[in-house]
Automatic annotation (TrEMBL):
This is Six-hairpin glycosidase. It comes from the Eukaryota. The keyword Signal applies. It comes from Lojkania enalia. The keyword Metal-binding does not apply.
Length: 646
């Protein structure tokens, strides 16, 4: 396994191997270890054990069915190995696909790169958090672990430097001319980075008395104004996509196509707006370019006094907790919720066209009345960050309830049967949930192996996955879902971050939220472990996490894992497009085969048939599939980390 090789081969991994063994072999060390007592207490003291106290909830014997991963068991070993896998996934993503001298993931396109940057920053947040309970006394020179803490710190700095390189490698000029969703990925990416910088600095570089702020805080802080500027510029470009004329509101996908009001652009807008409200620190930088489209790029480099004054005027009062951002998010969600964009399974379909638009120079019906029934994983994900942010900004529990309901619908649509629990209600009047109930875990045998809308056998799956025809876009989707799911399930604050501006959860609400997230944890881990099984000898993740799992138990061609099995041509369980769905980007051929076709960039061309790994079909392993691996493994680590808090 790759992680083990890495563990032996890379000095910077020593800490992880050490942690792994200290967790697993804790009792052995306590008995047979001759280090000074004080040191042992530091390592195994109760304040360092939070992560190790995760309840082993799965006492059942391992499944005898080799097609399924071993039962989950949230053991200490599972936690440390998840952290190790996260380091590994990130390391492969950066060493294989990132070109430092260009400041780019060279094979990514603009929007997928923005998503990769987001995964990079959020993973750094996770690694930064992993330090606090495993490496206390980071700056206490008498503690032996100090050395390892510095190694992890060095690792974080290495990747942070790469994300700075990407800040300059990002093609900001090109993205200005792209679609509104492209711009909004950029906004979310740099907000994520700022959140990482702030939390890392607060956590590990506390202000020290007698030392001026700039000298005691983490050096990453110096980039906040630059990142804030990038986020604001792209937010302001994107918000021009809001349109009242058609469908009584909603964001347009792109200024360059016939009007299409789709789930992703609207969800991005909601999440970006509420994140600007909560996290944007303000920006007084009127250069290098202004963000209103009329002045255009040309004005950027020649700003007269009038331009500067206008810019100053526009910037007034735009800072954290600017009510305009919040109002946009609330309004955006109200529109989305009433838009009819959810199907009968409670999943967001892709979006709406307007009937007869452009006919005879008219706007046609002017209504969102031609629905594309296509269901993608990412359309169920991005809104989750928005809903959590909306709750924190308003205290309105409906947002959290909507989020939990959506998550349950997604999990159910993967054929996972453990979450057929009633929808939880957080509001007083609807308080029906039994708070004493333990989260249900395991029982993998029960998962539905038929295509359930977003997967089978409990594995989140893009429709194009089994066919091996996912485009570069499609390859990015599942990771996006898991990124936003992880955000949503971060424990709720029980005291307000900024009293008067943000809301705190009551103890009951915080507990209920956490218990629900605990219920999702086994599903998340099931997905992460399935994804981990797709890694090749170089540690690169594949696209279809269900290889070898999805089709078990039916009449399929058989193969030895990890090659997986394929449904027969006429199998009724074969995933198929919903009626009235169009998927131009990820063509779905009439049957699943070992040959498949190349996706859109080389559409129609047959490719050589593979005899082995199904994840070699189509685009094969890419930086996008790696980003998906990073995101789902990070989700596993975060869900495990918070598991015992319910
Ligand atoms: C478009 O215009 C033509 C000519 O003016 C007219 O005959 C036709 O009915 C119009 N169609 C619609 C859909 O309005
Ligand atoms: C809470 O949010 C929901 C929206 O989704 C809205 O319908 C409801 O009116 C809000 N409640 C309050 C008290 O603002």
């Amino acid at each position: 396994m790759f992680s083990r090789v890495a563990c032996l081969g890379r000095p910077s991994w020593a800490i992880l191997c050490l942690l792994s063994s200290s967790a697993v072999l804790g009792s052995v060390l306590q008995n047979g270890d001759d280090r000074p007592l004080a040191e042992k207490e530091l390592i195994f003291g109760p304040e360092n054990q939070n992560v190790l106290q995760i309840i082993p909830v799965d006492p059942k014997p391992p499944s005898s069915n080799p097609a399924y991963p071993k039962p989950l068991g949230m053991s200490p070993a599972a936690v440390t190995s998840a952290l190790q896998d996260l380091h590994s996934a990130l390391s492969v993503m950066q060493s294989t696909y990132f070109s430092l001298w260009l400041g780019k993931w060279t094979t990514a396109i603009d929007w997928t790169a923005a998503v990769l940057g987001t995964h990079l920053s959020s993973t750094l947040s996770s690694l930064s958090h992993s330090l606090s309970y495993t490496l206390p006394g980071t700056f206490d020179k008498t503690v032996k672990l100090d050395v390892e803490a510095q190694m992890v710190e060095n690792e974080i700095n290495k990747y942070f430097a790469q994300s700075i390189a990407y800040f300059f490698g990002e093609d900001a000029f090109a993205i200005r001319m792209e679609a509104y969703d492209d711009m909004l990925w950029v906004v979310l990416g740099w907000l994520e980075s700022m959140n990482f910088i702030n939390s890392h600095s607060e956590r590990h570089y506390p202000l020290t008395e007698g030392i001026i702020r700039e000298e005691s805080e983490w050096h990453g802080k110096q980039f906040i104004p630059a990142f804030a500027h990038r986020a604001r510029v792209f937010y302001e470009l994107a918000e021009q996509g809001w349109d009242w004329e058609l469908c009584s509101g909603g964001m347009l996908w792109s200024p360059h196509t016939l009007p299409y009001k789709n789930a992703i652009t609207n969800q991005l807008f909601i999440s970006a707006a509420v994140s600007m409200y909560l996290y944007f620190p303000g920006d007084d930088n009127c250069s290098p370019f202004m963000s209103d489209q009329e002045s255009g790029v040309r004005a950027n480099f020649k700003m007269g006094k009038q331009d500067m004054d206008e810019c100053d005027e526009r910037m007034k009062g735009k800072s954290t907790y600017d009510p305009i951002y919040l109002a946009s998010a609330i309004n955006g969600y109200k529109w989305l919720k009433n838009s009819g964009m959810m199907n009968e399974k409670g999943l967001y379909v892709d979006g709406f066209h307007i009937h007869d638009y452009g006919k005879n120079g008219t706007i046609g019906t002017g209504k969102c009345d031609e629905r594309n029934e296509m269901v993608y994983t990412y359309n169920q994900g991005v809104i989750l960050s928005g809903l959590r942010g909306l709750w924190e900004a308003t205290g309105n529990l409906t947002y959290l309830e909507d989020g939990h309901e959506l998550i349950r619908n997604v999990i159910r649509a993967t054929g996972w049967t453990d979450t057929d629990t009633p929808t939880i209600f957080l509001t007083e009047s609807q308080h029906q949930h039994d708070t004493t109930k333990r989260p249900s875990v395991s029982n993998h045998q029960a998962h539905d192996q038929t295509w359930s809308g977003l997967g089978s056998s409990g594995i989140l799956t893009e429709l194009c996955d089994p066919y091996g025809t996912c485009s570069q876009n499609g390859q990015t989707f599942k990771g996006i879902f898991f990124h936003h799911l992880t955000n949503f399930c971060t424990p709720l604050p029980t005291s307000a971050t900024t009293p008067g501006k943000t809301f705190a959860a009551s103890k009951d609400t915080a507990t209920l939220h956490q218990r629900s997230c605990n219920e999702y944890a086994p599903w998340v881990i099931h997905n992460a472990r399935s994804a981990l099984r797709t890694r090749d000898e170089k540690g690169r993740f594949g696209m279809w996490w269900g290889t070898g799992l999805a089709s078990h138990g039916h009449d399929f061609e058989s193969d030895t894992p990890p090659a997986g099995r394929l449904p027969n041509r006429n199998d009724p369980l074969r995933p198929s497009l919903p009626e009235d769905a169009t998927d131009h980007q990820n063509p779905v051929p009439s049957s699943i085969s070992r040959c498949g076709r190349f996706p859109s960039d080389r559409e129609g061309q047959e490719q050589p048939c593979t005899t082995g790994d199904l994840n070699d079909r189509g685009r094969g392993r890419t930086v996008e599939t790696q980003g998906g691996g990073v995101a789902v493994v990070r989700a596993m680590w975060e869900f495990l980390r918070h598991f015992n808090k319910g």
